[in-house]
Specification:
Strand order of the largest sheet: 12-8-5-4-1-2-3-15
Strand content: 15-25%
Oligomer: single chain
CATH topology: Rossmann fold
Distance between the termini: 36 Å
Structural class: alpha/beta
Shape: globular
Bound molecules: nicotinamide-adenine-dinucleotide
Length: 445
């Protein structure tokens, strides 16, 4: 087996810090970064952007290499929906570990209209299936760390188990996976992935960790502190996650928008802890041929409680906020029991790196200097996508980028690869994606 780790989705909020962190901690390993820049394009399609400015991937990698004195990150521009691209990457690198983060990850985005729902499910299911097949063919001993979501469980009203549960019916007992009850097309795609992972484990013996991750908050980790290495920070109502959004609402609106009663509870963890947990799981894979589920979170909060914490820290920055209740755009229970079993990561030595208050302070420090950027699209902070509304086939308001609505299963790729081979590509940049022209321009965004 080789000593490389492949990260699919390496341009993302979690993917880039993970790449920089693993690269620094494993100077002798090659870290292969894959992305098609879908998130940059999709966030742009709803009129938004990363509040913290981010560099193009080639600039990030070059700067990382210069400042760290390392040469172990390699970026490949590829669309993981394309089986041939994924297969080519696996046949070349035969990795020891694979991290799969390359998915459309916004629940509201998936609920915009039918086109966005189809895109989400198609993207998420095909990326996962392609990775599973290529592991089975080229890297059967590799450990796949697949990022799922705690939202797969919904709000079941009993403690969420970490792994299977015992059930009894009509006098017979059995063991089944903990019930899934996703509340958006996005979450449903993650549930499908879970079942596909289980089948791939049974059929091909793929060793996999299915990470049920809580909601992540934070603007940086140590390795992305330098503005040249910053990771994306989404703040609008479609792409932002709740704590990050609250801080932006505090700075821009002097308000915190509470969805409905604000009693909705979820598991949360900081970006520091997300990266630390992933590293810990990579260093402690399940035994060969095993599938395991890991619940990845620090603490459970309700959204009103979180608003109170952000309100308090805002005062340290001389920002006085009001809590404003708004119609809940989601269809979800607004009051419910919520408890999550999470023993595996603590048993591997996981400890929270920073308190919620410390990380929220850091988010204010990242948002305040970028206030004028957010002011430009102030209206994007309010909810725009309502689950229960009659939904069009195609939304006029948020057209899907056409570049992402068509892709090839391989033939165009072969043409493209020939071209790339003839014309050459910059050092440490390989292009496997179908529409190389539009993609390379994206690199410079
Ligand atoms: N951020 C959170 O709070 C959170 C919580 C739970 C789970 N997750 C999951 O963690 C993973 C990473 O999330 P994130 O917040 O970094 O999201 P992100 O959107 O910032 O990153 C995902 C990356 O994958 C890339 N990508 C998407 N489709 C691709 C494709 N077909 N081919 C190649 N690259 C593709 C995107 O361009 C993006 O860079 C996702 O699977 C998400 O569902 C995130």
């Amino acid at each position: 087996m080789s000593d490389s780790i492949i990260i699919f989705g390496a341009d993302g909020y979690i993917g880039w810090p993970l790449a920089a962190h693993l690269g620094k901690r494993n100077p002798d390993k090659k870290i292969i970064l894959i992305d098609n820049f879908a998130t940059r394009e999709l966030v742009d399609s709803v009129g938004s952007f990363s509040l913290v400015p981010i560099k193009a991937m080639e600039e990030r990698v070059a700067y990382y290499e210069k400042t760290m004195g390392l040469n172990n990150l390699k970026f490949i521009l590829a669309d993981a929906r394309e089986p041939e691209s994924v297969d080519r990457i696996f046949s070349k690198y035969r990795p020891e570990s694979v991290v799969h983060l390359a998915q459309q990850r916004s629940a509201p985005f998936s609920m915009i209209d039918q086109e966005h729902a189809l895109y989400t499910q198609f993207n998420n299911l095909t990326t996962n299936m392609n990775i599973l097949y290529s592991i089975a063919r080229h890297a059967p001993h590799a450990h796949l760390l697949k990022m799922g979501s705690m939202g797969e469980y919904g709000t079941p009203g009993i403690e969420i188990a970490e792994g299977p549960i015992e059930i009894e019916r009509n006098g017979r007992k059995s063991s089944v996976i903990f019930p899934r009850d996703g509340q958006s097309w996005y979450h449903l795609s993650k549930i499908f992935d879970t079942y596909n992972l289980i089948l791939a484990n049974r059929a091909y013996g793929i060793r996999a960790t299915d990470v049920m991750q809580g909601v992540v908050y934070g603007a940086k980790i140590d390795e992305t502190r330098d503005p040249w290495l910053a990771t994306r920070f989404d703040f609008d109502s479609i792409w932002g996650t709740v704590i990050n959004k609250y801080v932006v609402q505090a700075v821009i609106l002097n308000k915190l928008l509470i969805y409905g009663k604000g009693k909705q509870m979820r598991g949360f963890l900081s970006l520091y802890d997300s990266i630390n947990c992933l590293e810990l799981l990579l260093n402690n894979p399940p035994p060969e041929g095993k599938y395991r589920v890991v619940n990845q979170m620090d603490d459970v909060y309700n959204t009103l409680e979180l608003a109170g914490k952000v309100e308090k820290i805002a005062q340290e920055f001389d920002i006085k906020v009001q809590l404003e209740q708004v119609r809940n755009p989601r269809v979800e229970k607004e009051e419910h029991y919520y408890a999550v079993e999470h023993k595996i990561l603590p048993s591997l030595g996981f400890k929270k790196e920073k308190t919620l208050d410390e990380v929220v302070r850091e988010i204010f420090q990242a948002v305040i200097p970028n206030k004028s950027r957010a002011m430009k699209v102030k209206e994007n902070i309010y909810p725009t996508v309502y689950w229960g509304s009659p939904i069009p086939l195609v939304s006029d308001k948020f057209p899907m980028p056409k570049t992402l609505m068509n892709f090839s299963l391989g033939t165009a790729l072969v043409e493209n690869n020939k071209k790339v081979e003839e014309e050459g590509t910059p050092a440490d940049l390989e292009i496997l994606a179908r529409s190389s022209q539009s993609k390379t321009s994206n690199l410079r965004k």
